[in-house]
Specification:
By secondary structure, the protein is mostly beta strands. Helices cover 3% and strands 49% of the residues. The protein is built from one helix and eleven strands.
Length: 124
């Protein structure tokens, strides 16, 4: 497991996540790293990796704060089956670092939905 693309904020999964032609057994949202995130300790972004099997569904990857407000979203329809890997840099749309706290990364693909918790400890 490893991230190989530049940090991403929002947009198309196809444009922002590297694709690996693999045949995963099931849709999956893999553990996110580094977690906890600490910019002071040298972390520059969070690696997000997920697998898609259902190629006919709309795939949504949403990052939300603890209140449920979306802070980043990646979406596409009819993705090829495989594994997608990309970086998310925890900044707001205006370029300011997001506040320290708990965030949720949620992947939805057809009937599959899974969330992972991310702890931003130091992001300033």
């Amino acid at each position: 497991m490893g991230c190989s693309t530049e940090p991403a904020q929002t947009g198309s999964v196809r444009m922002r996540f590297a694709y690996k032609h693999l045949q995963p057994a099931a849709d999956s949202l893999y553990p996110i790293f580094p977690n906890p995130f600490n910019r002071v300790a040298g972390d520059t972004g969070l690696c997000i990796e997920f697998a898609v099997v259902d190629t006919m569904a709309i795939t949504d990857l949403v990052i939300q704060n603890a209140l449920g407000d979306p802070v980043a979203e990646f979406s596409d329809s009819a993705l090829a089956a495989g594994v997608y890997t990309g970086w998310w840099n925890p900044f707001a749309a205006d370029g300011t670092p997001l506040m320290s706290g708990i965030y949720f990364v949620t992947l939805q693909n057809g009937g599959f939905i899974n969330s992972r918790l991310v702890n931003l400890q130091e992001n300033e």
